[in-house]
Amino acid sequence: MGQAESRNTAAPLTDLRSLETRLAAFSGVMPDVPLTVVEEILLNLPAHHVVNECRLVCPEWKELVDSAAHWRERCMREGIQPCDGSRPPVDWCQFYFITKKRRNLIKNPVADDKFQGWEIVENGGDLWSIENSRTPLPDKTATKCFVTSYRLCLKQQLIDLQKEGYSAAFMDHLQPHIKISDWYGPRYDCGCEYQICVELLGQNKNPISVFQPEKVFIQAWTDKPWYQMIHVFKNYGPGVRFIRFTHGGKDTQFWAGCYGIRVTNSSVEICPAAER
């Protein structure tokens, strides 16, 4: 998933436009070009050209571009496959485009650039800090973490979906699943509190859907170094234009320094509905 878009263009776009002009002269009569050849040409063109231009050439091309077989073949060639092979996508075209655009929309999720990209909302006690992770995450994806203190520390990011390439029409029509994930963990020698709130917001920043579970309290001397918070927004309705991600916490001992919750590898992804 997420492979670079194929640039192996078997027919230059100028040649395709010339072919479009000649096909238009047929006035709906099927040209003497096998559809298997046409499809091979389309499979080697950028997907957005196929949808926005090639699909309009003639009824035969439209039928070809609208077929599940075309997008299933494109997915196979570019190494894009559903996470669960037993549950194929309902719409292979939507699956292709959502998967190609999929990425983590959170900036600086693992503290590589200090606090760049984050807005500090609460900075209590001895303030937010950054440390090397004492224990690596299970998937080894992060070596640093953000750390809170003995008073409440919160930070957030506001994601502008249009700036990230997800238009209003795209969000309203498809309403793709929005998956959030956050890793959090305690110091072994101190209890801590963790909280998270993720909001889907409208154009005026009004909440449309909110994920805000109860605060998590972790006792001292806990053997498990990391926990993962996951939530998927579904069927949230039209109007979502922004996502506000807020998390943080504090320790439960009121110890000076940074003995609070550790958070890292936060993510917000627009993902296919076929994923479970």
Automatic annotation (TrEMBL):
**Entry's transmembrane regions:** none
Q: Which InterPro entries match?
A: F-box-assoc_dom (IPR007397), F-box-like_dom_sf (IPR036047), F-box_dom (IPR001810), F-box_only (IPR039752), Galactose-bd-like_sf (IPR008979)
What Pfam families does the record point to?
F-box, FBA
Give me the Gene Ontology terms describing cellular component. Answer: cytoplasm
- Which key words are in the record? Ubl conjugation pathway
According to UniProt, the name of this protein is Uncharacterized protein LOC445148 isoform a
FBA domain: from which residue to which, for each copy? 95-272
What is the native source organism of this protein? Danio rerio (Zebrafish)
Domain F-box, which positions?
A: 27-74
Superkingdom as given in the UniProt entry: Eukaryota
